[in-house]
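To close the section, here is one more complete example, presented without commentary so you can practise reading it yourself. The ligand is S-adenosylmethionine.
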Amino acid sequence: MAIKAKKSPKIAKKISKTKESKEYNQRPMFKNYFDNILQTSKSYLKKEFSESEYKDLLSKLQKYKHKKPKEYVNSFNKEYSDLVKKRHQKEYKESDKKFNNFIKSNSSNIKVIWGDCLGALKKMDSESIHCMVTSPPYYNAREYSQWENINDYLDDMRTIIRESYRVLDNNRVWVFNVGDIFDNPRTKTKSVWGKQRIPLGAYFMSIFESEGFTFIDDFIWDKGEVQSQRQKNAGKPYPFYQYPLNCYEHILIFHKHRLDPIRYPCPVCGSLKVNGNTQSEVGLQSWECKNLKCSERSASNRGKRFSAKTNITQSLQRRVSNNEISKDMVNKWRRDIIKFSPVIKINSKGVNTLGHTAPFPEDIPEMAVRNFSYEGEKILDPFAGSFTSAIVAAKLKRVGVGVELGKKSFRKAILKNISNNNDLFSNKLVSEEYDLSKLKSRNLQK
Ligand SMILES: C[S@@+](CC[C@H](N)C(=O)[O-])C[C@H]1O[C@@H](n2cnc3c(N)ncnc32)[C@H](O)[C@@H]1O
Ligand SMILES: [Zn+2]
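Output:
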């Protein structure tokens, strides 16, 4: 039975409590739910979309016509959101079809991309990646990263962050691991006296925010007794010579909220008869359902309030066991100071056994992937290094996409790393590579 508006708050509350009940899922609220609900959205669809887009959407919806209301609502939401995304993607003209097909293809779950990540990002479709996790090159801390001074480095990083903002899906997350370093910023002097602590974490927070991201969290990763035992007191146990060892790194969490003025369908009834509310966070438009036949109304008789973000995060369809985060995992990341070991690269003979100078431990991408994505989604690491992020993503049934500049130095080690990780206990890893300089892809297993 259709639920009428303006019931007493008491009744409305009772009805709203039963909304997830079996009965609601099985019995259509209206005689012909599909036509009824479409009727409430028709004028908006016709105003907002071209005739061909509208017809296309209608024909896609036909196959859901006889589904139960809840299934129809979910399917409509998906088809509509896909249409909105496609339209947004069309606005960007620089993407490369072949390259995006390589990333989208189901033939592998690890995508190894060789080249500069800025070039790769520029070829990628807008909002085509569901989660990002990375650890960037640290200014001049390693042989592979040489910039004239800290400002040049930060400028380069800013350009990459700007392009990533376009590529990351809306209302999604970037987990960014970076440590503050002890080095010469080379902005005033190049002499060894110019060495100081450079607060990369703080600089990155500021860059991310000015490029549109919202800073959400900063986990302090306590690395314990770090491998470097560099004395910071020059052997002088006197005042003004004492500096601590650098034993922690930041794991920063940023959200993307691009203000999207288009309406999204009510997650309860599927209608586009919704009114804009406030921005619940800057860049995040929230909506209120104005379909009086919608089954969920608040105690004060207000329609369902939601946003494009809550449609992702509160999707009951995705709250299934495969996406459930274990108690251990929740507990491990409960505090914003967290201790786990860094990767030990150097063996007792002083030899780097991993083939890469700066891999991060699996703990970081595991948290990013489990906490901020669903199975089947695409996880991107633009500074992939030894491909830790992509491997973890694929093991957790996502698609791991990594871009790495150092093909010559790291290719062998990366391929070995991928094959070593193909164990019996996790999802099978199948990788393919794409060389941006050669513009071609091929299967790594062949
Ligand atoms: C800190 S390491 C990342 C390590 C990685 N998290 C792992 O677990 O192995 C940074 C990596 O970024 C790569 N890199 C530096 N500049 C790059 C660029 N413009 N595009 C792609 N990769 C780049 C470096 O070669 C290096 O492997
Ligand atoms: Zn509704």
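Once you have examined the tokens, check your reading against these statements. The pocket of S-adenosylmethionine (ligand 1) is lined by residues 116-117, 135, 137, 144-145, 356, 358-360, 383, 385-386, 388, 403-406 (CB under 6 Å). The longest helix spans residues 69-90.
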